[in-house]
Amino acid sequence: MTTKEALRLKAMIGDYPITAPLKKGEVCSDLVSFDFAEVKVAHDAFKRTVRELEFDVSELAIVTYLMAKARGKPLVLLRAAIVGRFQHPFIVYNAERGHLAPGDLAGKRVGVRSYSVTTVTWIRGILQNDYGVDLDRVKWVTFEEGHVAEYRDPPTAVRAPAGQDITQMLLDGELDAAVLGATKDARLKPLIPDPDAAARDWHRRNGAVQLNHVVVVKESLSRSNPRAVAEIYRLLAESKGAAGLPKPGDLDPQPFGVTANRRNLEVAIEYCHQQRLIPWKLGVDDLFDDVTRNLG
Length: 296
Hints:
The protein is α/β, with parallel strands linked by helices.
């Protein structure tokens, strides 16, 4: 098969060190090629992945995938994580308004982009399981709806007024804490004390890494062309290798393979079930099909 005859796949994958060799064409195939969707931030296209099934292969937040899978969306997990990080530093409070600790959250207002965001789900799981926080006693202030259309936020979630900014609301005291990306504002301090040490301890106790984004393919592609799915996985793995990841001696936050991801997925499923994002506990093997489960 020549490059001209390669199967053209509609793809949505963000720009990261691990995907750069693939997206730049440094890693390529005679079997498949990609029409990459132009997206500034990958999560902006996740609704298109789970609601419209627009892409043959797509990056997707792990919590969004678990919620979609539990609701029968015809998507299959590939054995590839492309974004992972420990989430402990990303819940912050305004120290100028007084000290706040995880045990103080009852009755407080916590801003989150969306209730079912993966980072927020990991943080809620940490707060519940490691700090004894009753999540139902926290008011979760959201700024947008979730990716999976069938899901409805719980009564403890309320929508912020239109046009409001989550960081400004936190600085103004309209929120007591918020889940934000990296911030350089010296007023905003991590709610979890010494978050890096807490993350290392979490990893030691749970034997897992906190997956953020994985890769999925349409069930129809996996059924009709398993060779193409195997080639997608090979290209992702080759791209990771070409990027030199993980660095020698570093923990791998982007593991490939079922065995390497089993415990990571078990904890993610547990947290989603505890928080009623999924109606029952999915089995790890249910996330794959016979093609994606057995990729070499």
